[in-house]
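Session log. Operator J.P. requested a structure for one protein chain; no other inputs attached. Running the standard single-chain path with token output.
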Amino acid sequence: MKISASRLAATLAARFAAVVPPPFGVRADGTDFVVDHPTGWGLTMPLEWIEDEGEERDTGQLAELIASNALESVQDAVCESSDEPWPQFAPHVMPLPGTRRDASHVYLWYGPSEHSAAISMEPIPLASVVHLE
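Structure written below.
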């Protein structure tokens, strides 16, 4: 199965839109995962390259890699704009991003572990981000 860049971008945008602090906004623009900020602290992660990966990588492995990159990139953008750790786990402590996958989902969080996370996101079902046959 091949991942659909546009479906993954939309799914990631939905997960992050629920957790990023204002004034950030998160959206998908075709195959791009986009984080907007009114003063320009946003980012764009083009994902179209994942459609060329074919069967070289496992679908779950590739989805987890992209989710991990998104976690790090969003955290960097928010921290750079505010000069504060985000999300805060304890005063002035910034939790690291974390991911894991199983046969059917990718799990995303910020924190020392999935079970003690400062922020957890709804898991991404792998079936929802592959090309429909």
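Operator note: The chain has a mean pLDDT of 90.
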